[in-house]
Amino acid sequence: xxxxxxxxxxxxxxxxxxxxxxxxxxxxxxxxxxxxxxxxxxxxxxxxxxxxxxxxxxxxxxxxxxxxxxxxxxxxxxxxxxxxxxxxxxxxxxxxxxxxxxxxxxxxxxxxxxxxxxxxxxxxxxxxxxxxxxxxxxxxxxxxxxxxxxxxxxxxxxxxxxxxxxxxxxxxxxxxxxxxxxxxxxxxxxxxxxxxxxxxxxxxx
Length: 205
Description:
With 205 residues, the chain is mostly helical. It has ten helices and no strands.
């Protein structure tokens, strides 16, 4: 369901979903830029992308797709991998950063759900639940090794130079391929399996 349809049908659910979603996507992107900065590339910092301001991260087309069909994206944080002190290691660590950030967020908010007494449960607890689920899904989706998802860049960092060039060419049509796979449901079992592994990792049974 697109967020636009959700807004018209259930405005409260819209708010409870959108706030965790925006926060999670922004943290994902900032994590990429922060790790790149720590490894020698100041590009994201110089372009003002190491911020939690959503206006710096929203992609017009990605936002429109999110509202219309329920799947969207933010502007990727710019990274110049040639600036990194260790390009191969940097490619893996920078690409992993957003995924790790989402898993950490899912773990922290899952722990929060477990320690808060039920008598204090309220509407805002739904937002915390959404926070956990959104971050698990973002991490699972980005672990898929298809360009331009982070999993493809992690895999790229493990390949020898010759294979990197060949695999990197897939990126030009990668987004279209991913959208088709998502809309047809082909990726659902893959995402579900990775989600299950992440849930086991952070202690969700």
